[in-house]
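Notes to self, Integrase catalytic domain-containing protein:
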Amino acid sequence: MRETVTDYCRRCLRCLQRKTLPIKAAPLEHLKSSGPLDLVCMDFLCIDPDSKGVGNILVVTDHYTRYAQAFPTKDQKAATVAKVLWEKFFIHYGLPVRLHSDQGRDFESKLIKELLQMLNISKSRTTPYHPQGDAQPERFNRTLLNMLGTLNVKEKRFWSRHVSTMVHAYNCTRHETTGYSPYFLMFGREARLPIDLYFGVSVDGMGSISHSQYVAKLKDDLSKAYRLAEGNASKTNQGNKRRYDARVRHNELVPGDRVLLRNLGNNAQHKLSDRWRTDFYVVVDKLPGIPVYRIKGPRGYLKAWHQNHLLPIPQVSDSETEDQTGSTVSDGSSCAGNSPNNFDVSVNSPASLNADNDDEQPTIAPTNSHDDPPSSTRLSTNTPAFVPATQPGLNQTQNSVNPASGLPARDVRRGRRIRRPPSALTYDSLGVPNYTSQPFVGYASPYQCGLNVPCVADVQNLLREMYQMMSRLSSMMSVNYY
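result:
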């Protein structure tokens, strides 16, 4: 009976959609690059508009060197992105091998695709609602916000004037992950700052040498710096992965598994909405090297979602799948015994994909089958009353009824531990205190005098001895006045 109720509640669709909390099911994976401009990431940062109406910053970072650039813009249109990339980044720093971004419309537009195709630059993107896939621009956004937040109140109205200066200060600062400044890893030398010109020092340590010597020394310095930077970055990534994976609950998905998508488009005004969406999706395959799965929806379209946003669910029959797409689920009905959202599992049924039909949901058998579940998980009204089994060792009372409630009396298990009274401070004789486990004289019946403890009958003798002791003390402490 207990297992049936547990299995019934575990397969309740309404409970799954509302009560199931998302977990970290995929281990941490890092983006990899082999050199400067091998992988360039970009993202938009939105800030309060300044006096000129500028409220957006296009952030572009080089993944290998951590070199960053930020370009204030008035909008996030695709034409603006293409113009900034071409005039302010590609011309000055060269063309990257791959450009990575999120799934924003400004980055996934037809104009950007044609521009990158013309320049022979490959394009990659993150999965929906997963900013961890574009981590470097997101982390730089926080740093840039902290730097802009240190401006005084008057200068904050013109924050767009200070962006380039603060970004240059960031590039000239030693990075904690690589151990070098992004400027040095990008250009092979440290930036010459105003303080260097004031004191007349050369930060690169080079005097008047020929071009060939400069190139040879530059290659040698860069090779050493790249090797050390890769080692430092690898140690940092391993530490981050170890701490992240310690909280991961591994849940591998295989093709054919049925999943629900996490409902991530809600804001604070939808506190009663479900945590997971209503439509069922079928796992098609897994992308190589990353915890991203391609899933197929009820209309046959393919999507790529991160594993942390997928919830595996038990097998659903065809009739119950049609019921959950009706008004019962959309209206948010409660979990009742006759609810059509409670479904059974058919472990031995063959797998079949019907995703091409919009009116029917696919029926997929689970891959990891255990013991066969009961034929029906629905509760029956004809089930006999539950009678608890008697256990040996309990004091059973035959035909005993509680007169107050009319129910059978409950037997209480008695412990075998001997309970002893707490210790109390007492006196065996005057001036010699000790502890005894017997209760205090004033709280219980008279003691037996054989326990070497003052009895109630000896109170007069005790008071007499105390009076005599006080008399002797007063005679010894008498003072003679002259």
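- The first helix runs from residue 2 to 10.
- Residues 338 and 378 are 8 Å apart (CA to CA).
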